User: Fold this.
Amino acid sequence: MIGRRKFTALATAGVASALVLPACSGDSEEAGTTTEGGAVPLNMWVFAELHGTYYEQMAEAWNEQNPDRPVELSVTVYPYDDMHNKLQLAANSGSGLPDVVDIEVSKFSNFVTEDGRTPLMDLTEAAEPYADDIVQAQLDLYSRDGSLYGFTTHVGAFVTFYNAALLEAAGIDYTTIRTWDDFQAAGTAYNRATGKAFGVASTGVNMVEPLLVAQHGGNFFDEDGGVAVNSPEVVQALELEKRMQEAGAISTIPGGSPDAEEAYGAINRGDYAAIVYPAWYTSRFVDYMPDLAGAIAIAPAPVLEGGEVATIGGGGTGTAVIDSSPNKDFAAEWLAFAKLSPEANVAVWEVLGFDPANMSVWEDEAVTKNPENKFNKYFRTNLFDTLNEVKDEIGHFDAFTNPNLPAVDNIFTTVTWTEIFENDVPPQDALDQAQADLENQIGA
Assistant:
């Protein structure tokens, strides 16, 4: 049996910023419990409805292969902030925890403290049968001090989604866009010709900025791990974005990011023509913007002339097992199958439209170029043609594993980006203020 619950709002105010870990207990009743039918019950929390669909399908696949050891998966879908806040409260109180949970990469360090305390199970052993086939950098994202606490979902390499139909009508050829200078020139021309927005300046998500900072050879932290959000490279990245905004090439968007419900409607109406985002955004187009089928082309993300890397993995979800779950060993085995197995990596593309962390799938054209695949039907160009074009230039952004990333991400998305892109505060000033506030907050 597979169940699903969806919540649209939670009262989860007052979440502690530090992780306190008393003796924890999961929602299941007793160690090794099973249902009357012999299935092992697992209670799972996710923050994306599409993820819930995926896990339900992987539970069905497991049960087909393991009829003597079936899983009874119950998935609860919460809004992004509410789920992470609820998980923080449950971890702090030691009660009400699920068995398995999705944790977004920028929140992951909230649940593994610098001294190693965590409510999460070490999944190193469970990953061993599959680890050799998975991009190591994706395992590193959710590893701390040699222990693996989360299974990756995808690479999330940045690409650009162009509304080719709109650009063609405006006389703009997206295939000539290679650098950010090209992107700005095309965006300015499009804005002047149509009066509409081209690209996006997000205020509610820290997504494109890591790409730009990495391309500049920078980080949000110094070599010792201390906060350095006003470093020259970060300032240069934000000044580049601000110049693009002033030139009309990027504009703020309803909801604060392309991955917001309000934004889906705006993009679907044709109000924006270019979205630079991780490859997993394919699923948002197919599921939430049906009117654009046949109009969207996928191309490489713009690069910085002479930059350090072409692209990086952006965003991500580490799926974890709660260490106090009475069914944790079974949960770890099922989750390794659901996230790391060859079947899972094919399903990551076919069900979710994500770029699998097992890059051998990228070369399997029977999978990647299947004409019946719903993503291949939707887009003008093939995602994996673009990914294979840049696969040797995918960089790693070290900030994603810093324990203070959640604090940095929070101040960027609640204050700093709004100051820069809506209130016209110069990037240097806004980042100097963020640095000072973070130093006061975490003693960096």
